[in-house]
Amino acid sequence: MKAWLGVALLALAGCASSSLPYKPDVQPEGARIAAGYQILADRLRIEIDTDHRRLEDVWIAKADGTAVRASTIDNAPTVSGPGPTIGVGVGGGSWGGRGGIGTGIGVGIPVGGGASRIEGSTFASFPLDQVGPPPWRVHVKLAGVTPTTILVGGPPP
After folding, report:
1. Which of 18, 60, 128, 144 could make an S-S bridge to 49, C-beta 3.0–4.6 Å?
2. Which span out of 26-40, 90-104, 113-127 was modeled with the highest average pLDDT?
3. Residue 123 scores a pLDDT above 90
4. At 39, which helix (H) or strand (E)?
5. What is the mean predicted confidence (pLDDT) over 17-28?
6. 101 CB contacts (<8 Å, ≥6 apart)?
7. Contact, 48 vs 59, CB < 8 A?
8. pLDDT at res. 119
9. Omega within 30 of 0 (cis) for the link into 135
């Protein structure tokens, strides 16, 4: 039983980390950020795992010091805490030759609004002719977190 519990915990820990290959040299305090990329015709598409935070700003710093802003940003949907829940239970038991059955219905109503969060990756697209060849220095600013830079497009660490 303990072995199965250990395997389950390891599996859950593996699910908790991002599958995107590029990460900042130093993760900002309060979030785990990762990125990946695709080249689609004349566009560079950067996928950012924002650790359930809203993306406030993103740009690519070129070698000459100029910045290229994203031409489009596709934010992941924002979700908030759980809504009301309804549960139904049935139970039974016996004691000294006598049996009984019980049923119950429960309603859970959260007090206050749940915290909103981003569910999924955010995508930023850049004109490929403006950002130049890889690797790209992608500057990311998330809500409530210090800005960070991710080197994207070179060999994954």
Report:
1. 18
2. 26-40
3. yes
4. strand 34-40
5. 87
6. 90, 91, 92
7. no
8. 81
9. yes
Quick one: how many helices (H) and strands (E) in the chain?
A: 2, 12
- How many CA atoms are closer than 13 Å to the CA of 20, on its beta-carbon side? 25
Given this model, what pLDDT does residue 120 score? 85
pLDDT digits (tens, 9 = 90+) for 126-152: 999 999 999 999 999 999 999 999 999
Query: ∠ CA(43), CA(122), CA(60), 5° rounding?
Result: 50
Which has the minimum average pLDDT: 25-29, 92-96, 139-143?
Answer: 92-96
Give DSSP secondary structure letters for 69-120. E-SEEEPPPEE-S---EEEEEEEEEEETTEEEEEEEEEEE--SSPPPPEE-S
71 touches 131 (CB < 8 A):
no
Q: Which residues lie across from 55 on neighbouring strands?
A: 142
**What CA–CA distance (Å, rounded) separates 113 from 116?**
9
Pairing of strands 136-142, 85-95: unpaired
* CB distance 148 to 53 below 8 Å: no
